[in-house]
Write a structure and sequence with these properties.
The complex is a heterodimer of chains A (264) and B (359). Chain A has 264 residues and is mainly alpha-helical. Chain A is built from four helices and no strands. Helix content of chain B is 39%, strand content 20%. Chain B has ten helices and twelve strands. A six-stranded antiparallel β-sheet of chain B has the order 4-3-6-1-2-5. Chain B starts with 6 loop residues before the first helix and ends in an 8-residue tail after the last strand. The C terminus of chain B is likely disordered. The chains are: A mainly alpha (264), B alpha/beta (359).
């Protein structure tokens, strides 16, 4: 069964009894944490609802009891009752607001997690692809170098052979690399074209759906006329006065120091 | 009372807001976390009633902390009245005039301690500091560093933290450590990593620009450098837990005869070592400082590989070091356990756990 449930739907004892959590991803022990957490949240929500229902039933009993005792004293509602009722209305509204905020947070958490996972996948894939391209170029270039070295040349001295092999290697390597790069750029270009097309068609659809035509677009100011203070382009902050202080980087830090320090 | 669970604080706040609508503005939109906090604070007070000394310290902290929320002396009687109404409501016929008098007296005592601590604090410093962002840099898609300028001086110790509020998320306060020792120009640096679904961290990483305004509370925290031991220092940082340790390293650099300092900076992947370039620049002219990056989830990283506690165990003897660790709770716990197992006396290990879980 799924453990996600739309807010408003109630959790039943049967659901709790028959809950089956999927196993965690490879490399992790136990149940899938996300599902367990979601289920706990559901149980918590149910418990809170039950407790609140219980409290309001209890209030109702008290109110009826008081009315019973006070019967005959005054026929109209007492001011305390009105206040209690206002408290109840405000409490319900607050709980609704809390739930909206919690749902929005949950949604944003899921979106970010998904985006992060997707990013890692894309990066890993790109890295594998890049490694493959390099391997391919290297192996083909090596083969070309071998062939060049064994071919009978005009002067069969060692240095000449080495140079010929090196030349063949480099020529093949750059050729393979160029081919891959061209294919990659073509894919990118076709992606951009697809994007352009889908944007144009969706814009056309949107215009068609509008009850009145778009107002004319006001002429945009010439570029550079009013430079908006873009992030990172403002005057650099006053440097700190501490001996270690250095202003935040203005260029992306490089992590490719050849040999990072190691512990003793 | 515990039986009614969330219904009690829910009733309490609704009653308070109906009687004193102006108090609603002191709280965030979602009150769920706030209700839990109230219940915990009440439980702490009731449980501590027999140990007045420790309870007094707790209430004084609470009184001082409430200044930045905009709580003023006038609010305390209003809160007391709503608390009594709530207790009377949920205790039904068990609520007697004697019980009511006892609770009233107890609350007044609590309120008095809080009000006095707040008033004493108000003589020394403002309730909060207005800060303006003067530099903001996204170092990775989810990690940013930024610098703010404040207008009034704020004395603090390197390694301490402040709670922070952004106008985009009113009344939501989260703790962040200063990444520098106090400066004469009243600027402070912060490092922030976006927590998935994090209310404030999202704003601080991706929503700030030069000119953005923030509010900052009084400095808190005990992860501060203890000089004078004569021992060398090991700083263990995980991700943006680096910030307080960078401040401590800066403080050590002022010493005439600084001890040897090893700064172990760990992340899952190399792009998580968001401040390494700056750290290496700082270490370049300082032979006493060694910066060691470590990466746990990238097999072809050229430096140390593994979780920071694994890297620690592989190398020198740390028994004669003072250790300061900061980062995600599991990382700090693993580091403390590892160092203890390696024979580092607990008194030499300094950590601070604010709980990194941002709701």
């Amino acid at each position: 069964m799924t453990v996600t449930s739309r807010s408003g739907e109630r959790l039943t004892p049967d659901q709790v009894r028959s809950i089956a959590f999927p196993q965690a991803r490879f490399g992790h022990r136990g149940f899938d944490e996300e599902h367990v957490r979601a289920f706990c949240a559901l149980v918590e929500r149910e418990l809170v609802t039950l407790l609140n229902e219980k409290a309001s039933l209890w209030e109702e009993v008290e109110r009826l009891r008081r009315r019973f005792i006070d019967a005959g004293d005054s026929p109209g509602a007492r001011p305390e009752d009105a206040h209690i009722q206002a408290v109840r209305i405000l409490s319900n509204a607050q709980q609704m607001a809390d739930r909206y905020v919690a749902d929005a947070q949950q949604y944003s958490r899921q979106l970010t997690q998904e985006a992060r996972r997707h990013r890692n996948e894309v990066l890993a894939e790109a890295k594998t692809h890049a490694d493959r391209v390099l391997d391919d170029a290297h192996s083909r270039a090596s083969r070309a170098a071998e062939v060049a070295a064994t071919e009978p040349g005009p002067a069969a001295n060692g240095e000449w052979r080495d140079r010929t092999a090196e030349l063949a290697y480099l020529r093949t390597f750059s050729e393979v690399y160029r081919t891959h790069l061209r294919a990659y750029l073509e894919t990118l270009l076709s992606n951009v074209e697809d994007w352009e097309q889908s944007e144009q068609s969706s814009l056309a659809e949107a215009r068609a759906e509008l009850p009145f035509p778009f107002p004319p677009v006001p002429p945009s100011p010439a570029r550079g006329e009013s430079p908006s203070p873009a992030r990172g382009q403002s005057a650099p902050p006053a440097p700190g006065t501490g001996p270690l202080a250095s202003p935040p980087h203005t260029s992306p830090p490089s992590y490719s120091s050849p040999s990072p320090a190691r512990l003793p | 009372m515990a039986m009614h669970g969330d219904a009690v604080p829910l009733f309490f706040y609704s009653d308070l807001f109906l009687r004193h609508p102006e108090t609603r503005d002191l709280f965030p939109v979602s009150m769920a976390a706030q209700r839990d906090r109230l219940v915990h604070a009440l439980a702490r007070v009731v449980a501590g009633a027999h140990h007045l000394d420790s309870l007094t310290g707790y209430l004084q902290d609470l009184g001082r902390e409430h200044r930045k929320f905009g709580a003023i002396t006038d609010h305390y009687p209003a809160v007391g009245a709503s608390l009594l109404t709530t207790l009377a409501h949920f205790n039904g016929r068990a609520w007697t005039p004697e019980l009511a008098a006892d609770w009233k007296a107890a609350y007044e005592l609590v309120a008095q301690v809080m009000i006095e601590a707040a008033a004493e604090d108000a003589r020394r410093r403002p309730a909060c500091w207005d800060a303006t962002v003067i530099a903001h840099e996204l170092r990775r898609f989810d990690i940013a560093t930024f610098r703010v300028a404040i207008t009034q001086p704020m004395p603090y110790l390197p390694g301490q933290s402040v709670s922070m509020e952004a106008p985009e998320r009113p009344r939501v306060w989260r703790l962040y450590s200063m990444a520098n020792a106090p400066r004469d120009d009243l600027t402070m640096d912060f490092h922030v990593r976006m927590i998935d679904g994090g209310v404030l961290s999202m704003v601080l990483t991706r929503g700030l620009a030069v000119g953005s305004r923030l509010r900052i509370g009084a400095p808190v925290g005990t992860l501060t450098y203890q000089p004078g031991s004569g021992r060398d220092v090991l700083l263990v940082a995980g991700s943006t837990g680096l910030a307080p340790l960078k401040a401590i390293a800066e403080q050590i650099s002022w010493l005439r005869d600084p001890p040897q300092v090893h700064l172990l900076f760990g992340a899952r992947t190399a792009d998580g070592l968001y401040d390494l370039a700056d750290l290496e620049k700082i270490a370049a002219g300082r032979p006493w400082l060694t910066v060691v990056p470590a990466v746990s989830h990238e097999p072809d990283f050229p430096g140390e590989r593994g979780m920071v506690h694994e890297v620690l165990a592989r190398s020198a003897n740390w028994r004669e070091h003072d250790v300061y660790a900061s980062g995600p709770t599991p990382m700090v716990e693993a580091t403390v356990n590892q160092l203890t197992a390696l024979g580092v006396p607990p008194g030499q290990i300094h950590v601070e756990d604010f709980g990194w879980s941002e709701p």
